[in-house]
Fold:
Amino acid sequence: MALNCTMQNVTHLRDYKAKAYDRIFFNRQELDAILNVYGRMVAKGEWRDYAMGDTKEQAVFAIFRRASEMPVYRIVKRPKLANKQGAYAILGATGQVLRRGHDLKVALRYFDKKKFSVVND
Structure:
């Protein structure tokens, strides 16, 4: 039984793999740091849900108080800004930059300093 493999198929497979790795996402150490903060805030009752997304330019970890709302915070990784302002940013609900930095763990300290309180409606 002969294997029918043409150069066109090999090229297509190579292009597919290149596109799959062309996207930006958080690595394991970054996710551990983010999920550590997220877990503490869930235990306090402040946050209830999250979502993750990625594009060619950035990775986003969005944090929600309720699943039906807009994100309260977004943790963004943009490697193109690594040499300028820092690859990591914490954005508020309206998109304002709350903290920016070259090191994710330092940027995540924003949540340690901020005093959170539950407001009952």
Residues 1-14 have pLDDT under 50 and may be disordered. The longest helix spans residues 28-44. Strands lie at 49-54, 59-64, 73-77, 88-91, 97-101. The radius of gyration is 19 Å.
